[in-house]
Design a protein that fits this description.
The complex is a heterodimer of chains A (363) and B (268). Chain A is α+β, with helices and mostly antiparallel strands and 363 residues long. Chain A has eight helices and 20 strands. In chain A, the strands form four sheets. Chain A has a six-stranded mixed beta sheet, with helices on both faces. In chain A, strands 13-12-11-14-20 form a five-stranded antiparallel beta sheet. Chain A has a five-stranded antiparallel beta sheet with strand order 15-19-16-17-18, with no helix packed on it. Classes of the chains: A alpha+beta (363), B mainly alpha (268).
Chain lengths: 363, 268
Amino acid sequence: MLDHVEIAVDVRSAVKRYGEFTALKKISLSIQDNEFFTLLGPSGCGKTTLLRMIAGFEDVTKGEIMLFGNKIETLPPHKRPVNTVFQNYALFPHMSVLDNVGFGLEMLGKSVPEARKRAAEMLELVQLSQFAQRKPAQLSGGQQQRVALARALAPSPKVLLLDEPLSALDMKLRKAMQIELKHIQRETGITFIFVTHDQEEALTMSDRIAVMSAGELQQLGAPREIYEHPRNMFVADFIGDTNLLEVSVDKIVEGRAYCQLGGNHTLTCNAVDDVGVGAKVHLSVRPERLILSEQATEAESLKGTVVENIFIGTDITTIVNLDDGPQFTVRTSNSDRGTKRLIAPGSPAFVNMETGAARLLVD
Amino acid sequence: MSANTDVKTYTGFRFMTILCLVILYAPLAVVTVYSFNASSSITVWEGMSLRWYVDVFVGPESAKFKQAAFNSFSIAIIAASLATAIATAAATAIVRGGRYKLRVPSLGLITLPIMVPEIVLAVSTLIFFNSIGFTRGYLTILVAHTAFCIPFAYLPIQARMQGIEDTYEHAAMDLYATKAKAFRRILLPLMMPGIISGFLLAFIVSLDDFIITNFVKGAGIETLPTAIFGSVKQGLKPNIMAISTMLLGLSVVMVTISHFVSKWDNTK
């Protein structure tokens, strides 16, 4: 299959154990050439371990790692044509910025002038030419980050590994760097493997995301697919904000599941395989796909009371308690405020949703 | 700092401070001042003169002192260099060797000689040389100095190395450097202030040593401290104060350099 797409990194049943502890439980995934691929998960999920195994800093307990068809899991780091942008940048503090960027080329046997020439080009790419002679400590965090990027890109690696490179930057700079990184990835055509625990960052930058938890792959797909069709509870909860509700399935008719929310509230959603009548499962609805109204607008409007309106800048979050039922979070875009009046806390309100907004989850 | 915890407000603080400083430095001050005395007497001041400094270099005992100085400096340079090389290797192994079982014992073994009474070291070194049939002379002093300088060279190197994260070496290896190249190009330059500082400390410890040297040196070979001791036994003369003052000055300079080098940051 997919013979027209080249696989850059193929992780085959990779297992990593530290003594008794298993950090990675048989992970398999294929990362395509030219792809911006993100390993996403909370700390301790094994994402950094997997990255370090690809870089060569951790050995593979079991399984294989292929780089463009070649087995690399037994090679030492300096023999793998991949480069890493480290979380704390790890710029060599005693060398100038220029020599830092040229280091990889020099180690590959290029002459010093040749390495410096290429390093100067790379510094131009990240717009830091004027700092070439400075020491890393004289640069700001954002500038150091770009030097680290230039240094890792200078030897033209086949794959670039990025270990939470933006986590030390403040939010404004981080957003700017997200766009710049994505841009550089497109321009160079190098496969990026990006590790982050920030789901928003992952959604912004990635072509595909592998969501990991507890050493296991939870879901792999494009950002939109993962956001809109989370495969399980963990993914729905970890990616974005959501209303997670415990429901029991009353009946399934023509592919629609009728779910009991408690307090005589029901709602329908698309039935899924593995969830039959009588099942007690979870249901996920994104807050931005809910609409509040003062009057019942459809048969399925859920009646409740507004608890609180929270202003968060672009949006307004409204918390609604259903009568004798669960709590809902509803998000209204701030740009709608001309057409929609806020419902004051204590007032009754109805929660409405579009068809397909709610998803049943397999735990 | 709040007034009631500031040590300066304690009763007798000023008195104790001055007392300690006097006890520590009065003898040194006396020797330094009287080394510039024009008199042949060591206690009667007769005016300012460089007479005894000239005497050290051209006086009747100058040949002996010059030979002793040559021995002292050559031994200090060679012993400090060897000790620093060994200490650098030891620090690399202990700091970068991971959590191996004998890590704490190795650290103890390498720094323990600082705590061992010097006279015990001196006697045991002498017995050791005798038992292996090593003829006492220049070489025995050199070997003994190299050995006892190692812990002094080791401590600043280890302190420096503990502050260097291993991600630098990872980054170097990620950028196609072999382990040897990562050590030479990254770790060694970052350790250099510690290494220089360790060398200077070892140098000054070797230069000043008397007890061990006196035990292991053969007849007819002297270092500066043993030569000074020999001279003093025949009567205290002001030229001894001139030599002592010069040695004191050298020690102060070296220790000061060592202090600043250990704080020197080659990353700025």
